[in-house]
Amino acid sequence: MRAPYNDGKNIVLIGMPGSGKSTVGPILAQKTGMGFVDTDQLIKDADGRNLGDIVKEDGYERFLELQQQIITSKVFRNHVIATGGSVVKSESLMRYLKETGVAIYLDEDPVVLESRLDPGRRLARLKGQTFSDLYMERRPLYVRYADRIIDCIGKTADEIVQEIIENV
Fold this sequence. Notes:
This protein is α/β, with parallel strands linked by helices. Helix content is about 50%, strand content about 15%.
């Protein structure tokens, strides 16, 4: 299958933790012949710590600054980019990502999202903020920045990949 873009554009996957970005991304990249990158992994590799540890030790605001610094220091062309759920907290970071690609919001039921998370997983969020609070804060931002919204409810990763391919 050919890549959906012949001009080097990226497909930027946005959505809540547990929405499938890191699962769908590699499958989409393989089926389209594009490269794949996970921005959470970029941050881990650059900093040497897990994201939850960065938030715990340095604070949420510092994590957001670090995320922006690391992602904007990279240039990707013809890649599927699985982003961390908090990228939408930065308008300038989203503008940067959208300059080189199309943003696809993987929309999933919040109950399903929360059930997919490992019990010990620390999310990038403010102290005391519940998963539900985080969802309610971020969902409007995902919708705002999305060029396309994929309803993932009840769909397999392969079905989601096929829908993305058909809609970009």
